[in-house]
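Hi team,

Filling in the usual template for the complex we talked about on Friday. All components are listed, including any nucleic acid strands or ligand strings, so the model treats them as one assembly.

SUBMITTER: L.P.
PURPOSE: interface mapping
COMPONENTS: four
RESIDUES: 368
SEQUENCES:
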Amino acid sequence: MIEKLVEKLKADKENWEKFRLFFCEKKIPAKTVLLKEGEIADTLFFIKKGCLRMWFNNDGKDITFQFFFEGQAVASIDSFIESQPTLFTIESIEPTVLFSLSRENFNFILNHYPEMKEGFNKILYTRFRNYAQLFLSRIKDNPRKRYEDLLKNHPEIIQRVPQHYIASYLGITPISLSRIRNKK
Amino acid sequence: MIEKLVEKLKADKENWEKFRLFFCEKKIPAKTVLLKEGEIADTLFFIKKGCLRMWFNNDGKDITFQFFFEGQAVASIDSFIESQPTLFTIESIEPTVLFSLSRENFNFILNHYPEMKEGFNKILYTRFRNYAQLFLSRIKDNPRKRYEDLLKNHPEIIQRVPQHYIASYLGITPISLSRIRNKK
DNA sequence: ATGCAACGATAACAATTGTTAAGAAATGCA
DNA sequence: TGCATTTCTTAACAATTGTTATCGTTGCAT
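RESULT (copied from the run log):
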């Protein structure tokens, strides 16, 4: 995603120098909050190195429902698009390096390359389909099955992410996850 | 939705006579399958009277995950858009009267009124947001809370739909739903 | 009207998952 | 290195939910 975008921008020699300044590199330690519940997302992030999680507060406990890794674009989509306060917090899990792009600059680029709009819509569509998938898996599968699917389809998540975040993501307690992992 | 569409088409006196023939009224008894898992959705339905449910098979049990009532448009969106076999079955709960519109005619109308495309995209966007909401409620809330939310926000569903479908929709067994309803 | 299928309630028991608590292992940082 | 924090595991018990089965009611079709 970020690669394609930058490639495209670089090809446009005339404007590249200008666009380059739009992207701001940012280095953050683990457990840094990039966007806090209630704020309005005015920045799009691209992960160069590291990983993030998206979570929301539910009766004092935080519930993680999405992870992001290298190469992915990260934002509270709803909030970014509609300029509404986000329901979700975005936070680093590991020390992370990212590029940030402000909404203004994002819109500027989109207006400069209207053909990118379609690609952006596809990303949206994909993101929502992803929600639908997660939703169905919650309905269909019990925690053990969801863990096994995650292990099969995204072993990298289980490798890199602390277990209590994964437990939260699977909708169970860390204790229950521990049982599933060991009483196999 | 259907009202707006028909209103718009009627306003176009020149073509209304032609378009009118696109819509085919259909009367079906309860428990009639309109679209079966594995088929390709080539028809869009609008409900005049009655209600439907959308479900899929999971290890021999059917899981209901969406209800449709008067005035709503119904289709397996993914299948209808991408001409892929649907994962979901659409079935009437009550005796139902609906209008059907074939994909060809739907596309014909859309091409004739390109300004409708945006409205259609909004419907899509809304549908997906709805999935996201349902997804979050599955994560956040226990069955009792989900039942109470449904009772509060959609009492008409609880009134009209048999309990075992609602239990399925809530992700619990009919027995458990019965307990929740009575041990309040 | 009669019989059958669908629907809902309840009981008894099993399985799963949550809660609380304690301690071991790993990790990060001064 | 050593200390503090985070992370993970395990145990004992509680709560929730599922499973199986039975029974009464209702609605519909013949």
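MY TAKE: The interface with chain A takes residues 56, 58, 63, 65, 78, 125, 128-129, 131-132, 134-136, 138-140, 171 of chain B (CB under 8 Å). The beta strands of chain B are 24-28, 33-35, 43-49, 52-58, 61-68, 73-74, 89-92, 96-102.

Thanks, L.
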